[in-house]
Design a protein that fits this description.
Elements: H1 2-5, H2 15-22, H3 27-33, H4 38-44, H5 49-58, H6 62-68, H7 72-83, H8 90-104, H9 109-114, E1 115-117, H10 121-131, H11 137-145, E2 146-149, E3 159-162, E4 165-171, H12 174-179, E5 190-192, E6 194-196, E7 203-206, E8 218-223, E9 233-239, H13 242-254, E10 260-261, E11 264-265, E12 269-278, E13 281-289, E14 301-311, E15 321-332, E16 337-343, E17 351-352, E18 357-366, E19 370-381, E20 388-399, E21 403-404
Antiparallel strand pairs: 1-2, 3-4, 4-6, 5-7, 7-8, 8-9, 9-21, 10-11, 12-13, 13-14, 14-18, 15-16, 15-17, 15-19, 19-20
Helix pairs in contact: 5-7, 8-11, 8-13
């Protein structure tokens, strides 16, 4: 009879099992529970419940809590009042910024010094009012952490150097970006994210789904050189959202995928399988696509590749040798094969001794969206010049990034024959030869014959 008259109530349940249940809830569900009744409101305020949420959403550590002298719940509330609209993005972007700064602190301290303090909420609101467009939430979130960087060289978003061509992209602060906001036909509702002093190149963020673009995607613009309408602009897509674009870039930097050379981040991509060892000599290759020297119409895709040749430290002294010539076998996306032979590499004939490393950069252009190259170097021994041998160059692929054609492209576009491949190892285009102080604004576009811009 007593059992039949008992009413099950939260007030009758012990606290420990209820707290255990609450510990599995997401922060939104925990907040909702606090509104159900007085008992759950009291239990949801249990301080240890908020420790996990402070770390997961705001990356708050124990030492920071001690320094601020607040409870975990009060600390969560403090961050939520200021950054609550960014709760789905903040931890991901804050971690990316922290990882990037920790990695560059010892390697490129000048870049860290160029970063600006985060923008205030009202400053971002004022920019939206100025340009008449809403900024993506993840973009705003990142700029609350750091408002881009000062306009310096080298830029935070990577560099590339080839003979008389140099590119280094700064991450623009929100005020400078707003000054470059585009409303012209073909680039409407586009906000520049990066800028290069030497080439004028920028990556743009689409603030609206218009003219064939998708809101929040990031791209390099590429004028259609075969269209009569100047607003016909093709796009090389570099990211589907600011978060994807920025975190993937940071990942490539902190994992060493992008090498740091002379205090600069060089955006070469290295396939870890793209390594070949012949005897005591190992050859590895990394590649990079240059959108500023490429076009979709006509199809002209410009790549640079950096090759590292290394002789093992354990090699015998009599193994010393010198590079005489190179051989390339090039296969394009259509299956067409071309062979190229030539003396040395970029005008040099490096001597390899135990432990020595020789690196050089060269470039090439293709008319198809993907190609691969492979081949070998021919060496001779220094002690026995008549003893020649080949060292394998591993196959490496060069693939054009995703691109989108302009929606206003003229229908009267004639087919243009593709230029033949020609590698430019004879051109002295080593990465280490650039001068960032030189006037490179009058850069040469790749010639129709398919050759790399030559040093002047």
């Amino acid at each position: 009879m007593m059992a039949a008259t008992m009413v099950l109530s939260l007030d009758n349940l012990p606290s420990d099992p209820l707290l255990l249940i609450l510990s599995f809830l997401d922060v939104r569900d925990l907040m909702s529970c606090s509104l159900v009744n007085r008992r759950l409101n009291e239990l949801s305020g249990h301080n240890p419940l908020w420790k996990r949420h402070c770390f997961n959403y705001w990356l708050v550590t124990e030492s920071e809590k001690t320094q601020k002298g607040q409870t975990w719940r009060d600390l969560f509330r403090l961050y939520y009042v200021d950054l609550g609209r960014y709760i789905d993005h903040y931890s991901t972007l804050k971690k990316a910024w922290d990882d990037l700064k920790a990695y560059l602190a010892q390697r490129c301290p000048r870049m860290i010094e160029s970063l600006k303090e985060g923008a205030k909420e009202e400053e971002l609101d004022a920019i939206e009012a100025q340009i008449g467009c809403k900024l993506p939430t993840d973009y705003r979130c990142s700029y609350r952490i750091h408002n881009g960087q000062k306009l310096v060289v080298p830029g935070l978003m990577g560099s590339m150097a080839l003979s008389n061509h140099y590119r280094s992209e700064d991450l623009l602060d929100i005020e400078t970006a707003a000054g470059g906001f585009q409303q012209r036909k073909g680039m409407r509702q586009c906000l520049p994210l990066t800028f290069c002093f030497h080439t004028g190149l920028s990556q743009y963020l689409a603030l609206d789904s218009t003219e064939g673009r998708t809101r929040s995607e990031i791209f390099y613009h590429c004028p259609d050189q075969m269209a009569q309408d100047p607003s016909a602009i093709d796009m090389f897509i570099t990211g589907s959202s600011f978060t994807e674009w920025f975190t993937s870039y940071v990942h490539n930097v902190v994992t060493g995928e992008y090498p740091i050379i002379r205090d600069q981040i060089f955006r070469y991509v290295h396939d870890k399988q793209c390594v070949a060892t012949t005897g005591d000599i190992t050859v590895s290759v990394s590649t990079s696509f240059l959108p500023e020297l490429s076009s979709v119409h006509p199809p002209h895709f410009f790549f640079t590749y950096r090759i590292r040749i290394e002789m093992s430290k354990s090699a015998l002294p009599e193994s010393a040798c010198q590079l005489d010539s190179r051989y390339w076998k090039i296969t394009n996306a259509n299956g067409n094969v071309e062979e190229v032979r030539g003396p040395g590499v970029v005008g040099e004939f490096p001597v390899m001794t135990p432990g020595k490393v020789h690196e050089y950069a060269s470039c090439t252009t293709f008319s198809t969206t993907s190609e691969y190259m492979e081949g070998h170097y021919t060496f001779h021994r220094l002690r026995k010049k008549e003893e020649e041998f080949d060292v394998q160059i591993p196959r490496f692929h060069m693939v054009c990034p995703t691109f989108r054609e302009s929606v206003v492209r003229s229908n009267a576009v004639n087919n243009v024959s593709a230029p033949p491949f020609q590698d430019d190892d004879d051109d002295d285009s080593g990465t280490d030869d650039y001068d960032t102080r030189g006037d490179l604004r009058g850069m040469n576009m790749a010639a129709p014959a398919g050759r790399c811009p030559r040093h002047i």
